[in-house]
Design brief:
Layout lengths: L1 H12 L12 E6 L5 H12 L3 E6 L11 H11 L2 E5 L3 H10 L4 E3 L7 H15 L7 E5 L4 H12 L3 E5 L9 H14 L2 E5 L2 H5 L4 E4 L12 H8 L6 H4 L7 E4 L11 H4 L6 H21 L8
Parallel strand pairs: 1-2, 1-3, 3-4, 5-6, 5-8, 6-7, 8-9
Helix pairs in contact: 1-12, 2-12, 3-4, 5-6, 5-12, 6-7
């Protein structure tokens, strides 16, 4: 992980430092979900490496007309050096990775969002340095793919990470929590799942949130979900409970007046724009090291 973050920091300082790494090579970017940051960051990252990004919408492959995922993986592997995928079902990414002979990068599923967390942790490292002892990093809101990624990545980094969510169906997946605890025991990190946003925010270094209604969520549940999540909105009052040097983070897009107050996301403690910028630097680092063979296997 340090290798990826160090290289991403180098790409932030000089985006064209490896401008021929993908010369005369292509990377496929397959998305069945609309995107702003993931598409722009992926295409620009590949271009900065000297490669050609090939963007493919969900309805543009024979996959949408019955061709198997395994056959699709084999075909893409013959044309491209890597595949970046943003889709709904985690099992689709896993199956592509199992049958592809090129790196497959999970750029978001309904279960996980690992590339976002690379950007998040590079931003955190810029803000606080590598020594994160005594710091608490808090996610508030829906126990969704972002909460899963937050817990797993935080555990990998040896951090004290918290997910503050409602109980019940909008809590993180129990298996993810178990995995995060296992990783934290090995890394020296600490994982907490709590249901009190004020206790979570107390002395935190980061308050992080995500939209309450994600793509694919049932609108029939909207009213119930908003009621359950409203106490976890990041407000000025919650930010006042944090450390004096705390920051606010959000994976974006944001809905001001729902999961975050406008005065928070547009205020002096917000670092969401730097965080969004690092989507490119971290994807650039990930693709660079995967195609060189510095990292083995697919990144799920």
């Amino acid at each position: 992980m340090e290798l990826l973050l160090d290289t991403a920091a180098a790409f932030a300082a000089n985006p064209l430092r490896s401008s021929t790494a993908l010369a005369h090579q292509s990377v496929a970017i397959y998305m069945t979900k609309p995107s702003t940051r993931t598409r722009l960051s992926s295409e620009s990252a590949i271009a900065h490496l000297g490669g050609t990004p090939i963007f493919i919408r969900g309805d543009e492959l024979q996959l949408g007309r019955g061709e198997s995922i395994a056959d699709t993986a084999r075909i893409i592997s013959q044309y491209c050096k890597a595949l970046i995928i943003r889709t709904y079902d985690q099992a689709d990414v896993d199956e592509l990775g199992a049958h592809a002979t090129i790196p497959v990068i999970n750029a978001l599923t309904d279960f996980d969002h690992p590339t976002q967390l690379l950007a998040d942790w590079l931003t955190i490292r810029e803000q606080f340095g590598k020594d994160i002892s005594g710091r608490k990093f808090v996610y508030l809101g829906d126990g969704n793919n972002m909460s899963h990624a937050w817990l797993i990545m935080g555990a990998i980094m040896g951090a004290h990470v918290v997910a503050a969510t409602p109980t019940g169906k909008w809590a993180p997946d129990p298996h993810v929590i178990e995995v995060a605890h296992t990783i934290a025991r090995q890394s020296g990190g600490r994982v907490e799942i709590i249901h009190d946003p004020h206790a979570a925010a107390k002395d935190a270094s980061v308050l992080y949130t995500d939209v309450w209604m994600s793509m694919g969520d049932s609108q029939d549940e909207r009213e119930e979900k908003v009621v359950a999540l409203s106490p976890f909105a990041v407000t000025e009052d919650l930010m006042a409970l944090t450390q004096s040097d705390s920051v606010f983070m959000h994976c974006l897009p944001a809905h001001r007046g729902e999961e975050v107050e406008a005065t928070v996301i547009d205020g002096t403690k917000s670092i969401v724009w730097r965080e969004a910028y690092h989507r490119r630097t971290t994807i650039q680092s990930l693709v660079y090291h995967l195609v060189r063979g510095d990292l083995k296997g697919s990144s799920h």
